[in-house]
């Protein structure tokens, strides 16, 4: 069993083709692992019967030589994706009992490619959070532990914390996530895995519960870069149902992993060196720069002058869009309803009980910045700054092929450590938000361990719709870093 759990997505696909295991056997191993790992609280809804039925169908297709790219591979789905007939909660009380009658385009693509669904993964409520502690279903636990004498439970990052923990803790071969301001990349860094946010528009948003519509983008969380390339190819594609979906062909992302970056120009932005940044983050970054240089890339110092405005700009635009998107949850059409003496009171009761404190905070911020008298002062100005941030990247990519930065400003912290300080929580996204504001592809690759023995990642950014180059650089970085540490949950550490 342990050997099957150690297989990567690509390795498992090859083992299935060779007949060394079956999808049913592989899926059952993961179903058992999920039960053993219940204490990590990674899953909101488990679907073992559905998984085994899908696995049986995959085995038939494999035997007939009709296997898809993800045939027979058991994966987890972030509970932001609508899945037909299976509970979809977005981590919120207000969607209690909501079972969609339709399938999101991304998950439909995965099932068409043969993937097997293990269940729906825990997440920050409506994807609002950087620690996976705002979920109505309780916090997700990082499978890693700090090597500093304590045994405190750590956050896995957010909002895709359930996805990150499931992959890192060997509860799923891979998982879907969504990234609005860093919610794939930051948890990947905290849990020692690979997290890939595609270019905005590469993956359809249809059937994904909306947080901030101009920022949300689905992507994979996987054990390595090759797995991310395989899964992205199965998730992506143009969708006529999504007006923001790019009408572009999906490249063979796996073919991009040439192992050769000689002659590529890698940009290092000065503005990502911030006051108070831990020395170990700078050390890790310099290690990554040196690995790129040794692999034959040319390192180029670049400037992204509006980077310092990215985080405050994000926390105007994202809450504004959230306040609009979440207006639909009123107790009338689906989910929770808390009755009152009038229609207005029913709305108030439902939203007060159904939304958690962080969602309420962001809805109120968003409503404020969109209100009369403040719209021009805040929202319009933020959109102008967003344009300047995008322009910085456009100018940088005139001279470089990719950009290398830290993924997060720290390693994973203890559950409850920063919950009373929203601003400190928001600062977890300081390195990931700029690319989100510009709609760029970005991915986090585990490169080393912190002084406390916890994983740290570096982020690779590329031009819009140039995921191929991003994966090419990330693959070389991964190979050079040779990160092979495993979490305490799997017997790693001390």
Can you characterise this structure?
37% of the residues lie in helices and 12% in strands. By secondary structure, the chain is of the alpha/beta class. The strands form 2 sheets. It has an 8-stranded mixed beta sheet, with helices on both faces. Strands 1-3-2 form a 3-stranded mixed beta sheet. The mean pLDDT is 95.
Task: Give a nutshell description of this structure.
This protein is of the alpha/beta class and 494 residues long.
Which class of the domain at 2-244 and 252-259 and 414-490 in CATH terms? Alpha Beta
Name the structural class: alpha/beta
**Mean pLDDT, all residues:** 95
Largest sheet: 8 strands, mixed
CATH superfamily of the domain at 2-244 and 252-259 and 414-490: Amidase signature (AS) domain
How many DSSP H or I helices? 16
So what's the overall shape?
A: globular
**What is CATH's topology name of the domain at 2-244 and 252-259 and 414-490?**
Amidase signature (AS) enzymes
Search tags:
alpha/beta, Amidase signature (AS) enzymes, eight-stranded mixed sheet, 16 helices, 11 strands
SSE layout:
Elements: H1 2-6, H2 9-18, H3 23-36, E1 43-46, H4 48-63, E2 74-78, H5 105-112, E3 116-121, H6 161-168, E4 175-179, H7 185-191, E5 194-197, E6 217-222, H8 225-235, E7 265-269, H9 279-294, E8 298-302, H10 310-325, H11 343-354, H12 357-370, H13 375-396, E9 402-406, H14 422-426, H15 433-438, E10 442-449, E11 455-462, H16 467-481
Parallel strand pairs: 2-3, 7-8, 7-9
Antiparallel strand pairs: 1-3, 4-6, 5-6, 5-10, 9-11, 10-11
Helix pairs in contact: 3-4, 6-7, 8-16, 10-12, 10-13
